Amino acid sequence: MQTFDVVRLVLTTSLKNHEIALAAGVSKTTVSRYRQLARAKALVWDDVATLGPQALHERLNRPRSGGRRKETPDLSLIHDQLHAKGMTLQLLWEDYKRENPDTALSYSHLAAQLRSYRDTLPTVMRQHHAPGERVFVDYSGLRPHYLDPTGKKVPVELFVGVLGASSLMFALCTATQQVPDFLRAHVAMFEYFGGLPQVLVPDNLKSAVTTAGKTPKIQRAYADLARHYGLAVLPTRPSRPRDKASVETGVKFAQQRILARLRHQHFYSLDELNAAVATLLDEANDRPMVKDSLSRRQRFDQLERAALRPLPPEPYVYADWIVVPTVPKDYHIPVNGHFYSVPHTLIGERVEVRVTEDTVEVRHRQKTVAHHPRSNVVGGHTTSAAHQPEAHRAQAGRTPEGMVTWAKEVGPHVLRFVRHQLNRAQPFLGLPACDVLRSLVRKHGTAALDQAAKVTFELGSPRITTLKRVLDNQTAAQGAPASSAPRTSYARGARYHAQQTEDTPC
């Protein structure tokens, strides 16, 4: 999946290699290599998107080969030694190579490692944000509240998002900072902006980042949202407040211009509180800024609105993810107490389930293999006939209702014949005759069977034995003259059944 995300960001964004490396959790060298491969192979995202992660990885990478693990030297020591007069990295690498001839890094690899290390050293840099590139998001430390029916304060969270170039601000109160509320706030923010930037810059809260550090691990649902909107996620570095200066300023501004003005008002629901926040948010965005006397909204209209990408047709819908390590032999997987079918060919495989309020989507190797409406019936089963082996489909259709459904597809006279067989006190007693009828379709075809069923009613004997005799006579008559013996036998048989049987109403 990392390869797929790297190539997606290379082909669809203008991010630099180190930014894509941070978003995808790979090295800058890897991003550079994939960028060169994409250029050399003239890859286009519309074509790449249809390949899928596994196929793309196999197309761009050779099979792994064995090798000894390389050992990285102490980069901080090398950095300090290079301050000595006359010392070069080439000399230090040669000494390191002599001490570790089998496990030493190459010179270029060591130089790249050293550059990455130096990027983590304390520096101060003035940040410039290109229009439409980044949005910074965070929660306010000060919490608003509303009153429940008993008059007790219910504290909530204030989510703030700020566009990097124009400083246009978005604010919304959410019940918690947990993943569902966090993601819904993002969806509302994108709708407020009316478009999408290229990069999301969150703080390292657990709803966005499960593991912080030099190679952060993005929370699964947050990565899913980013993939839905075609965004890169570049979390701020831990203990680096300058990385999120824009949103820190936005949070402070929201506290001053929104929360402070609400302190004397009383609200009795989250929706009522958010209605007041929305009014004050518009006023704050329309307020002229000291720097150039332009408001945040004016700067947005001039600099950033046209640079944002359009929203997708459907907004992101939050989903829980469930991993099923092994598909059982009955090819039904449990999801919140209900069992859903997957293709029987996946028995023994690992699948992932994306569960929304209305749907259950099953994925295998990043591809959707099953899609069901969600059911709340605990212990129930939802089965798709397309997921069943042929023998199971046949058995599942061996009911009176299933036989009638099958007969409707064959012909009107077969349908009448089937209903005649099932028209008894115990309809299941007619299933053996229907089974024979289905086997005759494979031997004689639907047209011949439907015509033979019609003849049985004309003879007043809608029975399997009569049907078989009619089919045999029809088959024999196809290669014999009209006055041949089979025709006489047919007539004799017809007279016999007319005398011996009594027509049963259908």
Q: Could you say what the CATH architecture of the largest domain is?
A: 2-Layer Sandwich
Strand content: 5-15%
Mean pLDDT: 81
The rough form would be described as: extended
* Neighbour order of strands in the largest sheet: 5-4-1-6-9
State the end-to-end CA separation: 61 Å
Number of structural units classed as domains: 5
* Low-confidence spans: 480-506
Classify the secondary structure makeup into a structural class. alpha+beta
Radius of gyration of CA atoms, rounded to a whole number: 35 Å
Q: How many helices does DSSP assign? A: 20
Instruction: Give the full name of the CATH homologous superfamily of the largest domain.
Output: Ribonuclease H-like superfamily/Ribonuclease H
Helix content: 40-55%
Number of strands: 16
- The CATH topology of the largest domain corresponds to Nucleotidyltransferase, domain 5
The CATH class designation of the largest domain is Alpha Beta
Largest sheet data: 5 strands, mixed
Notes on the structure:
There is one protein chain. By secondary structure, the protein is of the alpha+beta class. The chain folds into five domains: 2-60; 75-119, no CATH class; 134-307, 2-Layer Sandwich (Nucleotidyltransferase, domain 5), CATH 3.30.420; 320-391, no CATH class; 397-500, no CATH class. Helices cover 45% and strands 14% of the residues. It is built from 20 helices and 16 strands. The chain has helices at 2-12, 17-24, 28-40, 45-49, 53-60, 75-81, 89-99, 107-119, 179-193, 220-229, 245-262, 270-285, 296-304, 390-396, 400-410, 412-422, 431-444, 446-458, 464-477, 485-500, and strands spanning 134-139, 145-147, 153-155, 157-163, 169-174, 199-202, 209-211, 217-218, 232-233, 320-324, 332-335, 338-341, 351-355, 359-364, 367-373, 381-382. The strands form five sheets. Strands 5-4-1-6-9 form a five-stranded mixed β-sheet, with helices on both faces. Helix 16 (412-422) packs across helix 18 (446-458) and helix 18 (446-458) crosses helix 19 (464-477). The longest helix is centred in the middle third of the chain and has 18 residues, at 245-262. It is extended. The two termini are 61 Å apart.
